[in-house]
Design goal:
The protein is an alpha/beta fold. It has three domains: 3-106 and 195-256 and 337-416, no CATH class; 110-191, no CATH class; 259-329, no CATH class. It is built from 20 helices and eight strands. Strands 1, 2, 3, 4, 5, 6, 7 and 8 form an eight-stranded mixed sheet that branches. Helix 4 (81-94) packs across helix 10 (169-184) and helix 7 (125-136) runs antiparallel to helix 8 (141-152).
Length: 418
C-alpha cells in the first residue's frame, strides 16, 4: 500500500491545498494511494491560534481529497520552521506506513532545495561563523541564516534563484523538511510540487488562488456571520471546504478565533508574571514585550494595534506571537525535551479506515483516537502525560477564542467522511 504524507496547516483549507493533493496523486502515479495529512492542531507555526477548530479543518481536508488527518501537537506546530518540520517528519515516520512525502515549493529547481538542505552545511564552521557575524550586525535570524548558508554551500549571493528560494516561506519549509529527513534517516520518496497562486503569507487578493493569509484577512474583514463569510470566500475555497465553515458558524458550533481576545489574554499574562524563562522569550524578547505592554491600558488593546507596536527588525512577528502563546500556556524554555509521544487521529475517510488498521500493527507510537485511549498510558509515561496536558490546555485556550466550551475538545471523536 502506498501512503503519501503531506504536512499542512489548512488554516483554512483553500483551493491551493486541493491542488496540492490532486497534483500529489499525479506526481506519485498513485490514484489509489492513501493521502495522509499531518496538520497543526490548535496553534499554528506563525504562533497564533488557528482560525477554526482542528476538527473543522480536518473535515475540510477529508471532503477535498485527503484520506487521513493526524495532528501535529502544539509543541511542534507552534514552533520555528526547523522544529515544526522535525515534529512532522518524526510523526510521519512513527506511523510505520508512510512511503512517500510531498510538499509545495516556490522554485522551478527542486535540486536547489536539496543543495540548501545539506545538514553538513549547517554544521560547518563557515556557516556558524558567518551566522554569528550577521547576527552581530543586527540581522534577523532568518536573514542571517540565509546569508550564511548561501556562502557555506558555495553558492553565489547574487544568484536570484537562491535568494528567492531563501526568502520564500514555502521553500524555507521545504528545506527544513528535507533537512529533517536527512538527519532522521527518513526513507520517504520525495515529491516536490511547484506551487501556483500566492505565497501562504501574502494577505493581498491578487491571485486566482488566494493564500490562506488573504482568506483569513477577508474573513476578519466581515461581520463574521455565515452570509458575509460566504460572500468574502466564495471562489477562493472549494465549495465543499467553505460549506464546512458556513455550517459551523451558522449553527453556533464555532466562530473564527477572536484575535483581539488573544492579544488581551497575552497582555494580561505578560503584565501579571515573569516571562523571561518562557519558551522563545530569550535574547531580550521578554523585556522588549514588557516594555511595549507597560504603557498600555486594557481598553487600548487590540490585535492590530499591539501587533503594529511590536514590530521590530530584531524579532520576527511569528517569533513574538509564538512567545506570547507559550506565555499564555506557561511553557518554559527547557520544558520541551521530548519528541512526539503519540499519533492523534483527527479524521479519516473510507480508504483511510483501512490504512489505520495497518497502522495499528506498524506504528511506533500509541495511536490516539479518543481521550480514553490516553488515560491508561499517561500513568506510566511522564513525557506523554506532559504532552497531553499541554495540548489539552492549548485546545482549551484556542477554543476560548472561538467560543468553544473548555474541556470539550479532547472528547471529540475523529471526523468520519464517507
Amino acid at each position: 500500500m502506498r501512503v503519501i504524507g503531506i504536512i499542512a496547516e489548512f488554516n483554512p483549507f483553500h483551493s491551493g491545498h486541493e491542488y496540492l493533493i490532486r497534483e500529489t496523486r499525479k506526481a506519485t502515479g498513485g490514484d489509489r494511494a492513501v493521502v495522509m495529512c499531518i496538520m497543526s492542531g490548535s496553534f499554528t507555526q506563525r504562533g497564533l491560534p488557528a482560525i477554526f477548530p482542528r476538527h473543522l479543518r480536518a473535515r475540510q481536508a477529508l471532503k477535498c481529497g485527503a484520506d487521513i488527518v493526524i495532528e501535529l501537537p502544539v509543541e511542534w506546530s507552534c514552533a520555528p520552521a526547523g522544529e515544526f518540520a522535525e515534529g512532522a517528519i518524526r510523526t510521519l515516520m512513527a506511523t510505520g506506513v508512510v512511503t512517500d512525502i510531498c510538499w509545495g515549493i516556490d522554485t522551478d529547481d527542486p535540486g536547489l532545495i536539496n543543495t540548501l538542505s545539506d545538514p553538513a552545511v549547517y554544521d560547518s564552521v563557515d556557516y556558524k561563523t558567518i551566522l554569528r557575524e550577521k547576527l552581530s550586525e543586527g540581522m534577523s535570524f532568518p536573514a542571517a541564516s540565509a546569508a550564511a548558508v548561501t556562502i557555506a554551500a558555495g553558492l553565489s549571493p547574487d544568484n536570484n534563484a537562491v535568494s528567492e528560494c531563501l526568502r520564500s516561506p514555502n521553500s524555507i519549509l521545504a528545506i527544513e523538511y528535507m533537512k529533517a529527513m536527512k538527519r532522521l534517516g527518513a526513507g520517504f520518496k520525495v515529491h516536490m510540487i511547484r506551487r501556483i497562486g500566492q505565497d501562504y503569507s501574502d494577505e493581498s487578493r491578487g491571485s486566482e488562488i488566494p493564500s490562506a493569509g488573504a482568506i483569513r484577512k477577508a474573513i476578519y474583514g466581515t461581520d463574521l456571520t455565515a452570509p458575509s463569510i460566504a460572500s468574502a470566500c466564495t471562489g477562493s475555497m472549494p465549495d465543499r471546504s467553505l460549506s464546512v465553515i458556513l455550517s459551523a458558524v451558522s449553527s453556533g458550533e464555532a466562530s473564527p478565533a477572536d484575535l483581539n481576545m488573544y492579544m488581551e489574554e497575552a497582555y494580561l499574562r505578560v503584565i501579571s508574571s515573569e516571562t523571561e524563562n518562557i519558551r522563545f522569550m530569550a535574547d531580550g524578547l521578554s523585556g522588549y514585550i514588557e516594555n511595549v505592554f507597560s504603557g498600555l491600558k486594557e481598553g487600548d488593546i487590540s490585535f492590530d494595534r499591539i501587533s503594529s507596536l511590536l514590530v521590530t527588525k530584531h524579532f520576527t512577528m511569528p517569533r513574538i506571537y509564538r512567545a506570547l502563546s507559550m506565555a499564555m500556556l506557561g511553557v518554559e524554555k527547557d520544558q520541551i525535551s521530548y519528541g512526539p509521544k503519540y499519533i492523534r487521529v483527527l479524521g479519516f475517510g473510507h480508504e483511510g479506515r483501512y490504512c489505520l488498521k495497518i497502522m495499528g500493527r506498524c506504528a511506533k507510537l500509541p495511536i490516539i483516537s479518543n481521550r480514553s485511549d490516553l488515560l491508561e498510558l499517561i500513568s506510566s509515561d511522564g513525557d506523554l502525560k506532559r504532552s497531553y496536558e499541554l495540548n489539552s490546555a492549548a485546545l482549551d485556550l484556542s477554543g476560548h477564542f472561538m467560543g468553544i466550551r473548555p474541556g470539550s475538545s479532547w472528547n471529540d471523536p475523529p471526523v468520519k467522511v464517507k
